[in-house]
């Protein structure tokens, strides 16, 4: 049974609880910012901890007796030291409801984690209780829809879809959590043909700050209807803990999948990149094209060829290898890729495995912008020189392009909380480094990335992708949510007036 707290009793306490975006991706800035009230949170008594352990069906782990890093490991290693005082491994929505109520009763901060891929480490915190959905991985199929529990990871969901020859819009990293991916919008190679993953969300279950377990869907009215709207692009961790999701699926039909590489031997990488952007934007809609391009910054001091930018283009389309060659002919006329792997019209899930990105934990920061038609080419031409100025780390840096548009743009900007409906690309400056890189070198790299990003923003819509959450943004609320921000703020005030779910970039 869900636990319902008296609003007046909670209001007398008026404490702030720091929560995280529920697994939004992978990477970011400096230490997580904590409000002063959180630093003063008192440790619950041993009796209170025993009470929590007695009342939820999953185990409760405490830092005093268990190495919590075995459970609460981040994908971005910058936040590896930020461990809670305890973890409630919930098995049900009722467990989640009780854990929230327990935190409120004990004036104890909480954080929520599904898969630990928050780009800014917002699914980690130092101290407090982590509500962890690791054990909530059930799934079921019915009438062409798939329902998954809040702790489901991509790799488990994909296995279910593959067995039934079905698909949704999905990403490439198998260890990303479905919850954060969906709540922030959910981009992927299928979005131009089938819309965002959040566009396929037909129902969700959420536990809100009052301890109520709510069923959300298109028929819901009042605040539950608002929450259904907000759950489609409003970001993870803002309004409660989503414990299940139901998504409409589509047939997993054969595709041509490709991975093309222009190495450091490429004589005119800037011209190749511009030609690729123009060709991809001009692709016929019926090709159902989905792509990701990366311009790799040359590593300084690694020989003559290291002074050239590399280009990686991966993606999928409906059609033959010849259709792909015809599409990319303008770039091929400048220079053909030195490495080419193309799997023509192959079974859907077998070739998706070839595009997987392992998502290995490392130190990183990403900064994104949305751009409209024609702007990616202008932005690349104006900022390409920044790639040649990279200071270098022991890992890598690049400029990434995720092709948007198509069916993703077919909905009005206010149809869901995801506002970025008039775009053609996400451009993202990615920076990775290793544990052996000095603080001075990392600082130089961060300054380089910020300069690069400032130039890119001149060509943007003003938007940034909320699943590439970026604590360096000062105008993050408008960048993530645009004209939908006011409605999201109104929903937040209604459903969580005491800001039980709070973190540095919480609505």
Question: What would you say this structure looks like, in words?
Answer:
The structure is a single chain. By secondary structure, the protein is of the alpha+beta class. It has three domains: 7-132, Uridine Diphospho-n-acetylenolpyruvylglucosamine Reductase, domain 2; 139-251, Uridine Diphospho-n-acetylenolpyruvylglucosamine Reductase, domain 3; 255-475, 3-Layer(aba) Sandwich (Vanillyl-alcohol Oxidase, Chain A, domain 3), CATH 3.40.462. The protein is 28% helix and 21% strand. It is built from 16 helices and 18 strands. It has helices at 7-13, 36-39, 46-55, 93-105, 154-163, 178-183, 191-194, 222-230, 269-281, 321-327, 329-334, 348-352, 375-388, 439-457, 476-481, 485-495, and strands at residues 60-62, 86-89, 110-113, 129-132, 139-142, 145-149, 166-167, 201-207, 213-216, 241-248, 250-251, 255-262, 290-296, 310-317, 339-346, 363-371, 396-403, 425-433. The strands form four sheets. It has a seven-stranded antiparallel sheet with strand order 15-12-14-13-17-18-16. It is globular. Mean pLDDT is 91; it is low at 1-39.
Q: What class, by secondary structure content?
A: alpha+beta
Give unreliable regions as ranges. Answer: 1-39
Major sheet description:
7 strands, antiparallel
Query: What's the β-strand tally?
Result: 18
């Amino acid at each position: 049974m869900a636990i319902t707290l008296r609003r007046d009793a909670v209001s007398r306490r008026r404490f702030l609880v720091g929560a995280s975006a529920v697994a939004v991706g992978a990477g970011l800035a400096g230490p997580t910012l904590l409000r002063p009230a959180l630093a003063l949170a008192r440790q619950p008594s041993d009796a209170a901890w025993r009470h929590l352990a007695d009342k939820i069906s999953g185990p409760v782990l405490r830092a005093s007796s268990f190495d919590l890093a075995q459970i609460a490991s981040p994908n971005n290693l910058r936040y590896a030291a930020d461990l809670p005082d305890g973890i409630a491994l919930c098995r049900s929505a009722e467990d989640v409801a009780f854990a929230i109520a327990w935190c409120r009763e004990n004036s104890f901060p909480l954080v929520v984690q599904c898969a630990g891929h928050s780009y800014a480490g917002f699914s980690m915190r130092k101290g407090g209780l982590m509500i962890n959905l690791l054990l909530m991985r059930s799934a079921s199929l019915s009438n062409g829809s798939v329902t998954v529990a809040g702790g489901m990871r991509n790799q488990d969901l994909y296995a279910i879809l593959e067995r039934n020859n079905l698909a949704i819009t999905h990403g490439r990293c198998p260890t990303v959590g479905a919850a954060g991916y969906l709540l922030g919008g959910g981009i992927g190679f299928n979005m131009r043909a089938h819309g965002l993953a959040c566009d396929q969300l037909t129902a969700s279950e959420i536990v809100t700050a009052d301890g109520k377990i709510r069923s959300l869907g298109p028929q819901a009215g009042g605040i539950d209807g608002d929450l259904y709207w907000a759950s489609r692009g409003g970001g993870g961790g803002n309004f409660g803990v989503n414990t299940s999701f139901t998504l409409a699926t589509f047939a997993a039909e054969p595709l041509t999948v490709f991975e093309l590489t222009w190495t450091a031997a490429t004589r005119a990488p800037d011209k190749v990149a511009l030609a690729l952007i123009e060709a991809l934007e001009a692709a016929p809609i019926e090709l159902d094209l989905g792509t990701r391009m990366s311009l790799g910054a040359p590593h300084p001091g690694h020989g003559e060829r290291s002074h050239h930018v590399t280009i990686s283009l991966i993606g999928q389309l409906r059609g033959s290898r010849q259709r792909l060659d015809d599409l990319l002919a303008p770039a091929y006329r400048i220079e053909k890729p030195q490495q080419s792997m193309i799997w023509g019209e192959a079974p859907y899930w077998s070739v998706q495995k070839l595009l997987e990105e392992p998502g290995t934990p490392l130190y990183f920061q990403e900064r994104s912008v949305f751009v409209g038609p024609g702007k990616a080419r202008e932005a690349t031409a104006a900022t390409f020189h920044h790639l040649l100025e990279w200071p270098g780390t022991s890992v890598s840096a690049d400029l990434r392009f995720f092709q948007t548009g198509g069916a993703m743009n077919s909905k009005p900007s206010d149809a869901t909380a995801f506002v970025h409906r008039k775009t053609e690309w996400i451009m993202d400056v990615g920076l990775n480094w290793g544990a052996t890189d000095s603080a001075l070198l990392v600082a130089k790299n961060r300054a380089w990335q910020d300069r690069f990003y400032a130039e890119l923003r001149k060509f943007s819509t003003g938007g940034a992708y909320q699943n590439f959450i970026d604590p360096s943004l000062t105008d993050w609320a408008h960048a993530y949510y645009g004209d939908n921000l006011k409605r999201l703020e109104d929903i937040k005030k209604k459903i969580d007036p005491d800001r039980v779910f709070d973190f540095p970039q919480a609505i």
